[in-house]
Specification:
The chain is of the alpha/beta class. It contains 16 helices and 17 strands. Strands 4-13-12-11-8-5-7-6 form an eight-stranded mixed beta sheet, sandwiched between helices. Strands 1-2-3-16 form a four-stranded mixed beta sheet. A three-stranded antiparallel beta sheet has the order 14-15-17. Helix 1 (16-24) crosses helix 15 (404-416), helix 5 packs parallel to helix 12 and helix 8 (212-222) runs parallel beside helix 9 (245-258). It is globular and about 65 Å long. Bound molecules: pyridoxal-5'-phosphate (PLP). Pyridoxal-5'-phosphate is lined by residues 80, 135-137, 140, 163-165, 232, 236-237, 265, 267-268, 291, 301.
């Protein structure tokens, strides 16, 4: 979605990487042509589209995926960080299949809902109560409604580069960002794609990320109109950029001062520590949105927070004024597998993948230095991202400077060598990974960069 048009003067389809890719994936190419007859451009999820055509996954196994042509790839993509236990984890398979046999959705609440809720409340310090739905997008939508209902205000503060899912009001922040050296800190965003009414984003205020001054300026101008400030403690899709301490502290302080609800979107960042990145950073938001890893590989979203805010979701007779809806919300399969998945993700498991994450970041950085490539690796814990720019990255403005062609060539080059990351360079670790997998991504990156350098792509 955020890819600009080619920024190199050469056509990337002329690269050895693209030619090899086409040779290695004939069945996926045929599948793509056939699927395109029935699905726009051959697949439903926009963020999985890439040139020349995607490889279609036939199955997954631990840290690996296997595509239609039989190519095995180490999965450092993890379905945009959701598959923290990889594929086919025996305990998750067991939880899911046992529950499927007992029923996949009921006309009354399932018993495992409160078990997962209790686990999350015990785990994330700021979460006293929680409700479930089916995606991070829904969780954000409900959290924003709670904030609006609680404050009686409409405006929402967001950060440049943010991704909070696919609901209309938060699809902002990616286009036409001011230059990194611009003094402009707070802007009114435009909708991020066609089909959104201007009204969807008319209440959005866009601030520069990792810039405490931007927060101060926004609350100075709009403090009494803002219902919420919605922030990712690690900006995920924007570039795996951790919030700096002063920035996140400023948000907490200013939201308290102006009665604004602070919503931490931990859909990606929850994996950083047992209590999420908020616990790691020592910040206590009012509301937290969660998804991805909390579902044990099944669709899920959750809104959690302090009683004061969560009571807005009570039944009307208990004073509730917002409803969390959805036919499959809190479905028993996601609840049961989610609980097992979160129990498996204990302190030791997190420490292990975080340490592996550091090894990967260090290894990739060594390769970049070896090839004198204009690139860098961001991230923290078990999250990382490769960027083709040498300008130090602190926010989306600097990420926007990266060369998308080199990003795409790296993605394809790695895919040819049995490693999958996202097409934008975003990647993560999963618990089934072992030391040889870390070595594999580093050496595949080394080979990919050698090939790109040989063809003078950088
Ligand atoms: C920070 C953040 N919030 C919300 C979402 C939306 O989650 P979902 O894709 O489950 O709707 C995402 C998805 O990547 C995300 O990264």
């Amino acid at each position: 979605m955020r890819y600009k048009d080619a920024t190199t003067s050469r056509d990337i389809s002329e690269s050895k990487a693209f030619k090899d890719y086409i040779k290695m994936n004939p069945k996926s190419q045929d599948h793509s042509l056939n699927a395109s007859k029935y699905i726009p451009s051959g697949l439903s999820r926009g963020l999985l589209r890439h040139p020349p055509f995607p490889f279609y996954t036939a199955s997954g196994e631990g840290a690996w995926t296997i595509d239609l042509d039989g190519n095995r790839r180490l999965d450092f993509h993890g379905n945009y960080t959701a598959q923290i236990h990889g594929h086919g984890h025996p305990e998750l398979v067991s939880a899911g299949t046992v529950q499927m046999a007992e029923g996949t959705s009921y006309p009354a609440p399932p018993i495992h809902e409160s078990s997962l809720a209790e686990h999350l409340c015990n785990r994330v310090p700021s979460v006293q109560k929680v409700v479930f739905n089916c995606s991070g997008s829904e969780a954000v939508m409900v959290a924003v409604r709670v904030a609006r209902a609680h404050t009686g205000r409409n405006r929402i503060g967001l950060f440049e580069g943010c991704y909070h899912g696919s609901t209309d009001g938060v699809l902002v922040g990616h286009e036409d960002l001011p230059a990194p050296d611009s003094a402009e800190r707070v802007t009114t965003p435009k909708p991020a794609m066609a089909g959104l009414p201007d009204s969807a984003t008319k209440d959005a205020i866009l601030m520069r990320y990792n810039d405490p001054e931007a927060v101060l300026e926004a609350v100075r101008k709009y403090g009494h109109e803002l219902a919420a400030i919605l922030v990712e403690p690690i900006q995920g899709a924007a570039g795996m950029i951790p919030a700096e301490p002063e920035f996140i502290e400023t948000i907490r302080k200013e939201t308290e001062r102006f009665g604004i609800v602070m919503i931490c979107d931990e859909v990606i960042s929850l994996r950083q520590a047992v209590g999420g990145t908020q616990a790691f950073m020592g910040v206590t938001p009012d509301i937290t949105t969660m998804a991805k890893i909390i579902g044990g590989g099944f669709p899920i979203g959750a809104v959690g927070g302090k009683n004061e805010f969560m009571s807005r979701l009570n039944a009307p007779q208990d004073g509730g004024i917002v409803a969390n809806l959805g036919t499959y919300s809190a479905n028993p399969v996601s609840m049961r597998a989610g609980l097992v998945g979160m129990q498996l993700l204990d302190e030791a498991a997190i420490a292990r993948i975080n340490q592996q994450g550091q090894l990967v970041r260090d290894g990739l950085t060594q390769v970049i230095l070896k090839h004198d490539a204009p690139a860098q690796v961001t991230g923290t814990g078990s999250l990382f991202m490769i960027h083709w720019t040498s300008e130090p990255i602190r926010d989306a403005r600097t990420v926007e400077r990266a060369n998308p062609d080199l990003g795409m060539l790296t993605f394809i080059g790695l895919a040819n060598r049995g490693v999958q990351i996202s097409m934008r360079g975003l990647a993560c670790l999963s618990t089934p990974m072992v030391e040889s997998d870390i070595q594999a991504i580093v050496s595949s990156f080394d080979d990919t960069l050698s090939e790109l350098k040989q063809e003078n792509w950088f």
